């Protein structure tokens, strides 16, 4: 969701290419923005209006539910997306006039701030039921034409409830997707404020619909899970039934959390393939396709798991589709993670 605040913010960062992390030649376009381009809209069968697609063939009752969802959630989402940027005003001003003086915790030589890390994880879980990782933000994950002020990222994931998601592609699932986009956006701003107030950390929250960076590979890099056949992140705690948001930090406050502990999921996927046969638009590739070779240590090459245009026809018409999430065994029962890990790491 590209807002005026984002456009202004990005234009400012682009004036300081040596200081900020701007997208590069290996960046990809944000999916939601792609569907607004003439390149997409001129294609046969393209969805020209998402609101129209959303209400076509719906009962009056469902149209009222869609309307109520947007009336209750959209203003809060827009407010929290705007807050991502307005919270940065003081920082940008200090960069502009050269008065920026960083006094955050790392300057006290306290890296890796192990106690703060534990406190942060507890705060995120107890207040918002979020899991968290921390990693370097590669330029390749900044969406084309966008920028991040900082090069490190906390990455959060929040669960979507099982019951409504199991009803996908019915409206209940779409409403749950929207609910969690909203609650995660609120949570990410709250944690950014907590870090600023408690530890004077220089940071920027990014709403899960704020779309500055590609959150799924970033979350995988931060060790929150592995990307499944359906292209979603599969976590130990929630399976793929979660949404993701980043929070950028100026300094490397903590040790990076990435690891290969979830990589066995790829082998599991190659035997399961349930999402492939369940996808209503046959969008998920039988074999994922290499789209970007980065040749960079610590950065996995980019693979496309599904045809985004095919997916969008169902995604737009259902407020998020989510069939591939609902049928995934890790979504139905995240508790299988440990048993399957034992099995797949012992035999493969
Ligand atoms: S969201 Fe729906 S259409 Fe898209 S890949 Fe998943 S199941 Fe297929
Ligand atoms: S449904 Fe099966 S193949 Fe698809 S992502 Fe989940 S585990 Fe992997």
Q: Which secondary structure elements does this structure contain, and how are they paired or packed?
A:
Blueprint: H1 4-14, E1 21-22, H2 31-34, H3 38-41, H4 50-55, H5 60-86, H6 89-96, H7 114-128, E2 130-136, E3 147-148, E4 152-159, H8 162-166, H9 171-199, E5 203-205, H10 215-221, E6 225-227, E7 233-235, E8 242-249, H11 264-272, H12 274-278, E9 284-292, E10 302-306, H13 308-318, H14 323-327, H15 329-332, H16 336-347
Antiparallel strand pairs: 1-3, 2-4, 4-8, 5-8, 6-7, 9-10
Name the descriptors:
348 residues; two-stranded antiparallel ribbon; globular; binds iron/sulfur cluster
Structural account:
The protein has 348 residues and is α+β, with helices and mostly antiparallel strands. It has one domain. It is built from 16 helices and 10 strands. The chain has helices spanning 4-14, 31-34, 38-41, 50-55, 60-86, 89-96, 114-128, 162-166, 171-199, 215-221, 264-272, 274-278, 308-318, 323-327, 329-332, 336-347, and strands at 21-22, 130-136, 147-148, 152-159, 203-205, 225-227, 233-235, 242-249, 284-292, 302-306. It has a 4-stranded antiparallel β-sheet, sandwiched between helices. A two-stranded antiparallel ribbon has the order 1-3. Strands 6-7 form a two-stranded antiparallel sheet. Strand 6 and strand 7 (233-235) form a beta hairpin. Helix 5 (60-86) packs parallel to helix 9 (171-199). The longest helix has 29 residues, at 171-199. It is globular and about 55 Å long. The structure holds iron/sulfur cluster (SF4) (2 copies).
